[in-house]
């Protein structure tokens, strides 16, 4: 359906939890050869994104209102998005319980992301100034099970597994060192004084980190249900 909305076959990038849409609007303005979808669950923020989109006259930006995790799981065709971005996600309500309700970055979410990504696309990004949060999700991503005789579900493009220097931080897990990069990933843009940059500055943070992975082989349950198309 996205092709009928954008009326072209350009690659589609999804931002999950887009907030007021400043980052998505900035990327849509700069990357006019790509289509962008800003996903947000809060009604007031959906209104803000729509207002910005209309004011800027961006035919390559659409708004998806609702729960992104459910939309990816139940209402997204396989191989839909070239890139999926999660920028500055909230930590779990209980910092010690990543299975708590309301926590986005679960195994089920990553499985939905994997199915929704195109094999030749830019992949999956998580950007955060919270190293502990990324260190928490890194083992989940590394532990995802591939189908027999398949490559790992995700191919790391950040961290030591991608040939980058290890992030210097005491207590970083082996999985975190393997997957987490420092700075901002290519494709993030300059931020354009976005909400994320103001948030980062207000927290007096000095470092930012990211995970970047591209789609690899099929997951075990995908092979059991047959090939996707």
Automatic annotation (TrEMBL):
Domain of life: Eukaryota
Keywords: Methyltransferase, S-adenosyl-L-methionine, Transferase, tRNA processing
Keyword S-adenosyl-L-methionine tagged: yes
Catalytic activity, reaction form: guanosine(46) in tRNA + S-adenosyl-L-methionine = N(7)-methylguanosine(46) in tRNA + S-adenosyl-L-homocysteine
Protein name, per record: tRNA (guanine(46)-N(7))-methyltransferase
Keyword tRNA processing in annotation: yes
GO cellular component: tRNA methyltransferase complex
């Amino acid at each position: 359906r996205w092709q009928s909305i954008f009326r072209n076959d350009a690659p589609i990038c999804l931002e999950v939890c887009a907030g007021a849409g400043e980052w998505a609007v900035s990327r849509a303005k700069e990357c006019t050869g790509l289509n962008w979808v800003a996903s947000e669950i809060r009604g007031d923020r959906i209104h803000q994104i729509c207002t910005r989109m209309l004011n800027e006259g961006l035919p390559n930006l659409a708004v998806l209102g609702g729960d992104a995790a459910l939309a990816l799981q139940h209402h997204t065709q396989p191989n839909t998005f070239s890139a999926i971005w999660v920028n500055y996600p909230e930590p779990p309500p209980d910092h010690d319980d990543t299975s708590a309700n309301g926590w986005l970055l679960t195994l089920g979410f990553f499985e939905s992301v994997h199915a929704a990504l195109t094999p030749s696309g830019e992949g999956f990004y998580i950007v955060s100034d919270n190293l502990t949060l990324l260190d928490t999700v890194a083992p989940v991503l590394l532990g995802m099970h591939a189908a027999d005789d398949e490559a790992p579900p995700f191919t790391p493009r950040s961290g030591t597994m991608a040939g980058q220097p290890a992030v210097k931080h005491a207590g970083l897990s082996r999985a975190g060192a393997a997957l987490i990069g420092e700075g901002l990933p290519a494709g993030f843009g300059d931020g354009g004084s976005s909400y994320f940059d103001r948030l980062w500055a207000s927290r007096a943070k000095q470092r930012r980190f990211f995970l970047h992975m591209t789609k690899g082989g099929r997951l075990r349950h995908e092979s059991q249900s047959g090939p996707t198309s």
